[in-house]
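B., you asked whether I could sanity-check this one before it goes into the benchmark set. Here's the sequence:
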Amino acid sequence: MSFSCPLCHAPLTHSDKSYTCPQGHQFDMAKEGYVNLLPVQHKRSRDPGDSAEMMQARRAFLDAGHYLPLRETVAQMLNDILPGSATAMLDIGCGEGYYTARFAQIAREQGALTFGLDVSKVAIRAAAKRYADVTFCVASSHRLPFDDASMDAVIRIYAPCKAEELARVVKPGGWVVTVTPGPRHLMELKGLIYDEVRLHAPHSEQLAGFTLKQEQTVAYEMTLKGEEATALLQMTPFAWRAKPEVWEALALQSIFNCQTDFSIHVWQRED
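And here's what the prediction gave me:
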C-alpha cells in the first residue's frame, strides 16, 4: 500500500528517500519522514492551510485534553467497524496528528497502516516529527493521492472532501466517519463576536455511494483558562472577525465556560 502520483495518478514506488512513478515524476521525502504530494499547480496560495501560529495554538489546546471525549468516541467507533482484514486507513485534514495518532493505535491492532493527509506543510511537519508510526503527506483533500478502493476507513474531522473522491478510494463495504459542528457548538465564543448568534444548520450532507449507518452527538461544557479560550478562538473559522478588544478580554478571563456540540456520522460504502 503506497501513494499514487498526484500528477498522473500512476502508483508511486518508494525508494530510500523518495517516491517515483513510471512517468518519472519524483517526490522527495523530508527529513522528518513525510512526503509533499501537493504540486505547485495545485496550490491556491504559497503556503496553503494553517499557519505555524494556528497549528501551535491548536496543539496546545488539544494536548490539554479539551477534545478528548470526541477523540475517544471516534476511536471506539473505529474499533467497532474496522475489519480484521483491514490494510489501510486515512485521516483527512489530520493537522498535527492529535486524532490520527490515536486512530493509528486502533488500526495497528488490526495490522493496518495509517495515513495522515493535510494541505498544511507546517502541520504535517510537526505531525511527522511527533508520530513515527503514521505515514504523513502534504496533499489536497480534493485530489487524494491514493489508488481506487485502497482504504478500509477514512476519517474526516471538519475537513472538506468531495464525495466522489471518498467513493473512489474507499473499498466496497469500507467506512467513512465524519465529524461536523453541531447546532450549539461554541455558542459562548460566538456570542463575543456576533450581535446575533445563529445556530449551526443541522447536518444535511449526503454522500453518494454510501449508506448512513450511525449518527451520534457528543456535547459537553468546557471550563477554560483565558489563554486556552484564546487558543480555541484561534482554531475557529470565525477568528478573523474578532476585534482586538475581544482577544484582550478573553485572555484576561480566569475562567471561560463554553459548550461543545459535535455531530458524528458513520457511512458505509455500497458494494
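One thing to flag: The radius of gyration is 19 Å. Otherwise nothing jumped out at me.
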